[in-house]
Amino acid sequence: MVTALVAVLVGTAGLVAGATGWTLVEYGLHRFAMHGRGGRGIASREHLRHHAWPERTSPAMRSLAYLGSAAGGVVLALVVDRIGPTPLAVGVALGLMSGHTAYELGHWRAHHRPAANRWERWMRPRHFHHHFVSPRTNLGVTVDVWDRVFGTYVAPGQVRVPSRLAMSWLLDDSDEVRPALAPQYRLVGLPGSSAASDLDRALADLPPEV
Ligand SMILES: [Zn+2]
Ligand SMILES: [Zn+2]
Question: What integer is the mean pLDDT of 123-141?
């Protein structure tokens, strides 16, 4: 009984450590593997294409990311199991994969679905500030703590959103920003206009032209 309780507590501690660790991995990957390589390598290329065309998503790339997170979880579990108790290893791996899932779903939903809870309403202005104003800041998606630690946090204020790249959930039937969201977002540029340089600018870590 006591042994089972200890295993649950150790596993829970591992879960928290793994999920926290994910937020740092997420920050590091986004800052260095995606934005730090100018489109070289699959992670950077796909991510900067996401900046150029935020509405497009690739089910294959999303699946690949889940496979990568599962593989990372297995490797981490094997390593931790060698130096610590098995419940800790299982907890850490599940925490990492849960953190990745929260990030991936939260990020996908931010671009495609109306916010469903307080966390989504909180994290979105930072992420869209990262997309549309300053791609070298606000690199954490799920949390802002690592941006604050490493000096890349910027308070998003009212985020300017290029009309041609506006998220569908942001707009009402007249293609204006929904009144409830107006304190957080404003449209700039002409609706329906296109910018041929979106990919070039994304590759150079510059925000889209308006
Ligand atoms: Zn995004
Ligand atoms: Zn980015």
Answer: 98
* Distance from residue 86's CA to the centre of ligand 1 (Å): 36
Residue 95 within a domain:
yes
In this structure, which ligand is nearest to the CA of 107? 1
**β partners of residue 160:** 186
Q: Is residue 91 part of a domain?
A: yes
CA separation for the pair 179, 120 (Å, rounded):
18
Q: Find the 111 Cα to ligand 2 centroid distance in Å.
A: 13
Distance 131 CA to ligand 2 centre (A): 6
Give the distance (Å) from ligand 1 centre to CA of residue 1.
Answer: 46
User: In which domain, by residue range, is 39 found?
Assistant: 2-157
Phi, psi of 186 (to 5 degrees): -140, 150
Ligand 2: centre distance to CA 49 (Å) = 10
Give the per-residue pLDDT at 210.
82
Count of the separate structural domains present in the chain: 1
Q: Is residue 163 part of a domain?
A: no
Q: With a threshold of 0.70, does the pTM exceed it? A: yes
Q: Helix, strand, coil shares of the chain as percentages rounded to 5?
A: 65, 5, 30
Answer yes or no: is 101 within a domain.
yes
Question: Cβ distance 30 to 139 under 8 Å?
Answer: yes
